Amino acid sequence: MPINYARRLTDRRRSKHSNRQLGLCLAFVAGAANAGGFLAVQQYTSHMTGIVSSMADNLALGATDLALGGLGALVSFVVGAMCSTIMINFSRRRRLHSQYALPLALEAALLLCFGVLGARLMDVQGLFVPLTVMLLCFIMGLQNAIVTKLSNAEVRTTHITGMVTDIGIELGKLLYLNRQPRSGHAQVRADRERLRVNALLVCSFFLGGISGALGFKHFGFLSTAPLAALLLVLALVPMWDDLHLGWALWRKRH
């Protein structure tokens, strides 16, 4: 049963239910990595709105070095999203079961790398920012692109502003009083399922943030190891399916 559940979450065959369940898992991971990462590098690494705004502020104030630091974080996030898209499209053309699992496995490996080598990477300069910041931004871009691709942009795991906006929209619809219907005017109806999903995603991100902050406080960089293990467990089943199928085809040909 756990194997079948993991397969449904990350296999190439998607459903709205599996997209949302995987989104909840990844929102927790994103919240934990974002909050724990802030304690580690003193910067939120999924908040591109804030990073771009700070770049503009710093440029206006003449703090070119800080503006370039924001650019390094932004480029890392974009490259992470690009890498995820390339891996998914490459796997999709070959009809692999692991087209979404492979980027998750890469994310797990990078989180483990951050946990083991984070303290040493703090002093290594990357593209205008420490390598730790680039690594976390790359991971956030990688993950956000995975969920966006598999759910056709229905589910996001780091874009809390959008989720909260959708919650406000649906609550506004829910509280709206429909009067006598007029011809050509549909009544306003709230999408209760969308409201529920977005509320759960925000809560999952928040709980992940608490977990990540407490984990880093007590265990330091190694607190990312359980997150990496969770992602690897989710990714292993489709990867094993592809290996098993590839081995069976190879034996058949030889």
Q: Brief description of this entry?
A:
The chain is an all-alpha fold. 76% of the residues lie in helices and 0% in strands.
Radius of gyration equals 20 Å
| Class inferred from helices and paired strands | mainly alpha
Instruction: Tell me the number of helical segments per DSSP (H or I, 4 or more residues long).
Output: 9
Q: What is the terminal-to-terminal distance?
A: 34 Å
Low-confidence sequence ranges = none
Shape: globular
- Tally of domains: 1
Largest sheet: none
Mean pLDDT: 86
Query: Quick one: how many beta strands?
Result: 0
Helix content: over 70%
- What is the strand content? under 5%
How are helices and strands ordered from N to C?
Answer: HHHHHHHHH
List keywords for this structure.
globular, 254 residues, mainly alpha
3D architecture notes:
The chain has one domain. 76% of the residues lie in helices and 0% in strands. With 254 residues, it is an all-alpha fold.
